[in-house]
Design brief:
The protein is of the alpha+beta class. Helices cover about 30% and strands about 25% of the residues. The chain has a six-stranded mixed β-sheet, with helices on both faces. A two-stranded antiparallel sheet has the order 1-2. Helix 1 crosses helix 5.
């Protein structure tokens, strides 16, 4: 069996999803704004806890399957997972992020998104967040459940202790047009 699937580093990035190389969607304004606002909120919370990145490529191994590249829109990696890694190893970690965030784009196929969620969770992510800018929803997937949060809700999850995201102002900052 193949140990690792390697895809070229491209712009936009190429991931391995459902048995094929998949070039990520080129983001629109709404996608970019949601990604930026969520990265800012997570980075403020993550100080001293770990690292937050955007478009950070991970090489994820699911038991019994080849390691494959996935590139979440935003990711958080707990400091403990980074300890002892070389600068080179941190560039393309050989593990799943603690938290992976996927921001939906118009062209995303539901089956591709579901496959990524499955790979992240089976590969070791404690939480996968899927944000739908059009619906202004945030779905939190972990190994045990899926919870959907809407505008007016405050998102919290045990994988992000003490992190709170009030979705009404979050979506307003990210998506409302400037006046």
């Amino acid at each position: 069996m193949l140990d690792e699937i390697v895809t070229p580093i491209t712009k936009p990035e190429t991931e391995w999803v459902r048995g094929r190389a998949l070039v990520k969607m080129s983001p629109t304004r709404d996608h970019s704004r949601v990604q930026t606002e969520l990265a800012i909120a997570l980075a403020a919370w993550a100080a001293g806890r770990g690292e937050v990145g955007t478009e950070w490529r991970f090489r994820i191994a699911v038991p019994g399957e080849p390691r494959r590249p996935l590139v979440p829109d935003v990711s958080f990696v707990d400091a403990a997972a980074l300890r002892g890694l070389s600068h080179e190893d941190i560039q393309l970690p050989a593990f799943a992020p603690t938290v992976a965030v996927e921001v939906l784009s118009r062209g995303d196929l539901a089956a591709d998104v579901a496959s990524k969620i499955d790979v992240y969770v089976r590969g070791g992510s404690r939480l996968v967040i899927v944000v739908d800018p059009r619906e202004r929803t945030l779905a939190a997937h972990d190994a045990a459940s899926v919870s959907t949060f809407r505008t007016g809700d405050v998102f919290t999850h045990p994988a992000l202790p003490d992190f709170r995201l009030d979705l009404a102002p979050f979506f307003a900052r990210a998506l409302d047009l400037p006046t």
